Amino acid sequence: MAFLGIMWHMQAFAQQPRVEVRTDSSQILIGSQFHLYLDITLPSSYRLQGYALPDSFNHIEVVHRGQADTTSAGGQWLYHQVLTLTSFDSGRWQIPSFPVVLASSRPNDTSHLILQTDSLWIGVQTVPVDTSKPFMPIKDIRRVKLTWLDVLPYVLLGIAWVLLVLGIIYVLRHRKRKAVPAVIQQPLQPPYEEAMAQLKQWQAEQPWTKMQMKEYFTRLTDVLRRYVERAFEIPAMEITSGELLEQIDKHPILREHRAVWEEILSEADRVKFARWPSSPEMAAHCLEKVIQVVEVTHQAQEAERRTAESASPAGSQAATVKT
Q1: What is the DSSP letter of 43?
Q2: I need a surface site. Which of 100, 103, 143, 307 has the fewest CB within 10 A?
Q3: Membrane-crossing residues (predicted)?
Q4: What is the Cα–Cα distance from 200 to 92, expressed in whole angstroms?
Q5: Would you tell me how many other CB atoms lie within 10 Å of the CB of residue 117?
Q6: Fold annotation for 2-125
Q7: Residue partners of 33: CB distance under 8 A and separation at least 6
Q8: What is the pTM of this model?
Q9: Tens of pLDDT, residues 66-118
């Protein structure tokens, strides 16, 4: 019976919550760190609610609080946590007892149990100094002499840069230059012949059946504007249709056919800018009008040139010799 009683008391004691603290050292140098180990054993009827240990106390500071490890063994919970502490004041300092609060894990049970840890002592020592010797003076800065090993990387880097520059110069001077093919410029045709060659080709091919009306009228008016610009020295390629008509009004040969010019340019502008759905008949009509106006203005320009030549003294002399 006595044995059974002893076993019952031992089992009951084992089921009681316990808290234990210890350090890995009792003496440290000032500024050094040491560890505080916190171990809590709880039966399944309790859970850890927390403990009250401030970050700084009695010349000691908490540097780091490690993560708590929780394990279960024999129906009990074991909590283990490592705290890193330090002190910057020499002396013998106490780690005071601090409370550990436990709460009941039973349903509808709000009771708490507070355990107190043991207090511990830690000695903080300074670096030993021999005060019998005088203070040594502060030494001047000593310059370290350069060696070839110190200079060698910079020398090699400089040589590499020189070789790189020389290599680039050599490549640029000795690389084979591609022969540029000579561009043979074809002599320009006279304005009248150039325009009529394109217009006659279109008259045979009827391009409005193969392309969009907008593209056709753009190319048609470009041929007409180029002819006017080359033959009559009017910047027709760089001005609007309205400005071109103003220039036509100022020219004695061109203004006689203003109605034709206006009809062609207006139809082209409607197709290009207003999306006017022009017909194939209108496209052929405008082509015939362009051919006519180019032919007529060219003949008038040639007649004017011949008249000017016959009126000049050289022309009169040539006519006399011919007679």
Answers
A1: E
A2: 143
A3: 151-172
A4: 117
A5: 20
A6: Immunoglobulin-like (2.60.40)
A7: 63, 84, 85, 86
A8: 0.42
A9: 998 989 887 888 999 999 999 999 999 999 999 999 888 888 888 888 999 99
